[in-house]
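$ ./design --mode recover --in tokens.txt
reading tokens...
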């Protein structure tokens, strides 16, 4: 009975997912359990396996091996039933050039044979002023909002958002965030892939960091920072000679490049030691900043800054 209850709380359950393209292992043994009503974010560099994983969950791609249940349904065998319960925004969303947001939602409503929610969805996404503007004349952020409207036209239980804010300016990104927060408040399950670590930290209940087709870390942003992080950080600009100054202080780690220092430390007492050492060094320094580690800091430590083909 307990196992049954656990299964009923899961929106996504994937076990042992593998997918290869020739010699390339795009997904190399991924397991996922995503609870109903949570925002779950997949993070990773280009080529890490995020999109392939999401497309298998959506039923667009068939895994080489492994099993998937979405809302208790197999996304390949039960594709028609599942399409009525899920909404999808693919990576690089685009649509018919000469159609307006209002017309697009009405069109999708006929495809799913559901009531036309265009007025409701346009209002929710703040597209009222451009509801009759053709798609090609919309801004990038407005086009992404149209994508959200289409994904919501069938009132889905689960949403797959594959990099919905890539290429948008900061204001447009935050407008999309507000829509996602609204959807989260409605207890919809959201699977979000993104390149923006700040975005995941702001929106996601839990995240999985993916690289080389494997999950490197999984948990709430706070849990991942606590488990894989190193503490606090001091950032300061200065000449290379300061490296010797920092290395004399026990219990800290120092990184240096292009005139910038990152010092990782655990105790607030170390702050006093470092500032005193800087003042006594006689060397030039500026732009000192102290902060707690972020999800982005941990991500870069785990994955690095590499980009893949």
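writing sequence...
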């Amino acid at each position: 009975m307990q196992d049954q209850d656990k299964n009923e709380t899961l929106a996504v359950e994937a076990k042992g997912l593998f997918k290869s393209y020739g010699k390339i292992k795009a997904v190399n043994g991924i397991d996922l359990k995503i609870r109903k009503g949570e925002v779950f974010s997949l993070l990773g560099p280009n080529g890490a396996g995020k999109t392939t994983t999401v497309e298998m969950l959506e039923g667009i791609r068939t895994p080489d091996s492994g099993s998937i249940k979405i809302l208790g349904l197999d996304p390949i065998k039960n594709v028609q039933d599942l399409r009525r319960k899920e909404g999808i925004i693919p990576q690089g969303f685009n649509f018919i050039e000469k159609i307006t947001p209002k017309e697009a939602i009405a069109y999708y409503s006929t495809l799913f044979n559901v009531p036309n929610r265009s007025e409701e969805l346009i209002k929710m996404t703040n597209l009222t002023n451009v509801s009759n503007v053709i798609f090609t004349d919309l801004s990038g952020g407005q086009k992404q909002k149209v994508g959200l409207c289409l994904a919501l036209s069938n009132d889905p239980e689960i949403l797959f958002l594959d990099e919905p804010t890539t290429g948008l300016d900061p204001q447009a990104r935050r407008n999309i965030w507000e829509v996602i927060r609204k959807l989260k408040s409605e207890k919809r399950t959201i699977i979000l892939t993104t390149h923006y670590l700040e975005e995941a930290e702001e929106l996601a209940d839990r995240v999985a960091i993916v690289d080389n087709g494997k999950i490197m870390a999984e948990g709430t942003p706070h849990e991942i920072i606590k488990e894989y992080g190193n503490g606090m950080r001091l950032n300061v600009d200065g000449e290379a000679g300061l490296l010797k100054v920092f290395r004399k202080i026990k219990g800290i780690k120092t990184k240096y490049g292009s005139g910038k220092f990152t010092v990782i430390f655990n105790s607030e007492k170390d702050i006093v030691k470092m500032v005193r050492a800087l003042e006594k060094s006689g060397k030039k320094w500026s732009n000192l900043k102290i902060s707690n580690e972020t999800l982005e800091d941990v991500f870069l430590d785990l994955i690095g800054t590499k980009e893949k083909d």
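exit 0
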